[in-house]
């Protein structure tokens, strides 16, 4: 049974150009599996899958792949990353995004990874103007006041107004991907998103999950993303797990400083009590830590969260 998985987000360092070196580091730091990030380039991605699936490595590291974050591997499409393609788009971009996600599902099945983590798309291709202004003010030190209140209100109203056609496309996309994943014994986890124009919100996630068995589609809680949305006043951070605990398949664990996420747990000011209370015991714990965090903090994150009851 996999206990603690480390995302290849942390592997975006020159020393891990050969992903076998990353696999060895994962083991030495106390983790027993890897989640493959959507920022993993093709050559590194294939090298990592090789270490997970090949029985003829001649002494190479043996590593389990717990999950794949779609759309991995990273590919450039018309000058932009495939991860920026919108699964809820109203045009042909949606079909291209679906094909890349199906590829991630195929890869997961090939190495017997149980989960594919999914960004289900968004309203259009960029952040709402009001949210962008709100974030800039927050970062500059203005976190309360009439201007902040007005921007927040505009963001909430604009999303509600614009969402319906995009949400229906997101629903159609999920139906196609869920059927594809079910045939390959892979479960889809719908992730909490960082920006408010993205899908899903808690009630949307619950509605989407209701159409599927628990082992086909579920919710994937992202601690940092939920924290950032709460700090901006968009969604109560406790609402996610209060609403979706019974459908939660996994979690991305990372800390937050201001609006900056993906810190090693302990390098921010997240309140971990509600995470410990709200996570099901069998939800996969994935540490999604960025490449700027030092080795000792990545290693210490396990003990830090064990002390707080987030992991056993």
Tell me about this structure.
- The mean pLDDT is 95.
- The protein starts with a strand and ends in a 5-residue tail after the last helix.
- The chain has one domain: TIM Barrel.
- 43% of the residues lie in helices and 16% in strands.
- The chain is built from 10 helices and 12 strands.
- It has an 8-stranded parallel barrel with strand order 1-2-3-6-7-8-9-12, surrounded by 7 helices. A two-stranded antiparallel ribbon has the order 4-5. A two-stranded antiparallel ribbon has the order 10-11.
- The chain is an alpha/beta fold.
Number of strands: 12
Largest sheet geometry: 8 strands, parallel, barrel
* Domain count: 1
Instruction: Describe the strand arrangement of the main beta sheet, using strand numbers.
Output: 1-2-3-6-7-8-9-12
- Overall radius of gyration: 19 Å
- Helices and strands, in order, run as EHEHEEEHEHHEHEHHEEEHEH
Percentage of helical residues?
40-55%
pLDDT below 50 for ≥5 consecutive residues: which ranges? none
